[in-house]
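Here is the promised in-class demo. Please do not try to memorize the tokens; focus on the logic of going from shape to residues.
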């Protein structure tokens, strides 16, 4: 079924899917697995609460990235980042920026606000999942342009998170979303990620500046190698999660608070339930770690793969900012139909 879906279905599935996963995991974000079970019952949280069901800063920032892509169009990464900087600053001072935003994201945006260039504003020792929980729109927009996908994903992370693992995790997360959008089975993703590493290490966009110097590496390749090394440690845990299917994925795959953990946990959710959006995001939401980010990343992948029809109608009806999410999907579709 997934291979025959139209682009419109996949785009709507990704935008709605990331927001609904976020909304499902938002109430459990700071709870242990035991606390989740005590509060929501033996099966944990099963439905996003409220009408509308509120999402967190994960979706707010994903929307900011999507809006910047549409505004900048197919321009160089520097122009996109100028646009994204404006979107980030609007978000920073928005009265709706009250959804437990990450400290690193706030600090990076504050640096942007005082005029620090985007390729110097990121916090060099931070690899929080804020770097990759907002990157799904880049995977959609550049699904058939791997070099631009790589550059834009890295740049979007670098503005706030300058640790090498943050950039690599953002890059790989965007690729996973692009593969899902293309209908490629999740069972291939780990092998595809391994193949990506060589081309990733061979490419450094000069627009990213000399962050590798700030991070005290001798050259860009060594900087990127460290990011890949840390990501690979976490991805090696994914097959065990899939084999054992623990009640709490974070008991094996890490808490998801940092970028590589969040990707590993989300990918495990999708691999456990490659044909079931609801089960994939529930698995992420019912975890002791950064449950909204894990479920949001998993929801982006699963939604792009399975399409909007795979998401329960009641969830789609109640999700916060539903109209805006669907409009972004429509605008992305128009961009694709207009040619890249």
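The designed amino acids, position by position:
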């Amino acid at each position: 079924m997934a291979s025959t879906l139209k682009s419109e279905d996949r785009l709507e599935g990704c935008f709605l899917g990331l927001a609904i996963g976020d909304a499902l995991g938002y109430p459990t974000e700071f709870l242990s697995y035991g606390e989740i079970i005590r509060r929501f019952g033996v099966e944990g949280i099963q439905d996003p609460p409220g009408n509308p069901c509120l999402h967190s800063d994960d979706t707010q920032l994903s929307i900011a990235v999507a809006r910047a892509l549409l505004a900048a169009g197919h321009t160089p990464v520097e122009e996109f980042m100028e646009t994204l900087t404006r979107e980030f600053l609007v978000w920073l001072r928005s009265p709706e920026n009250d959804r437990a935003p990450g400290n690193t994201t706030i600090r990076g945006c504050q640096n942007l606000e005082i005029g620090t260039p985007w390729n110097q504003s990121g916090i060099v020792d931070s690899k929080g999942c804020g770097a990759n929980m907002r990157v799904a729109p880049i995977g959609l927009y550049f699904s058939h342009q791997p070099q631009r996908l790589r550059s834009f994903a890295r740049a979007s992370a670098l503005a706030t998170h300058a640790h090498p693992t943050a950039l690599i995790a953002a890059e790989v997360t965007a690729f996973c979303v692009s593969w899902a959008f293309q209908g490629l089975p999740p069972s291939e993703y780990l092998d595809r990620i391994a193949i990506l590493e060589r081309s990733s290490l061979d490419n450094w966009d000069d627009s990213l500046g000399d962050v590798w110097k700030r991070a005290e590496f001798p050259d860009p390749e060594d900087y990127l190698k460290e990011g890949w090394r840390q990501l690979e440690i976490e991805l090696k845990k994914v097959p065990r999660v899939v084999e054992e299917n623990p009640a709490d994925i974070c008991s094996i795959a890490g808490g998801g608070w940092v970028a590589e953990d969040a990707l590993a946990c989300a990918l495990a959710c999708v691999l456990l339930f490659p044909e079931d959006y609801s089960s994939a995001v529930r698995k992420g939401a019912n975890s002791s770690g950064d449950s909204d980010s894990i479920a949001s990343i998993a929801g982006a992948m699963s939604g792009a793969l399975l399409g909007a029809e795979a998401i329960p109608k009641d969830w789609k009806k109640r999700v916060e900012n539903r109209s805006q999410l669907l409009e972004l999907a429509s605008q992305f579709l128009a961009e694709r139909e207009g040619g890249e």
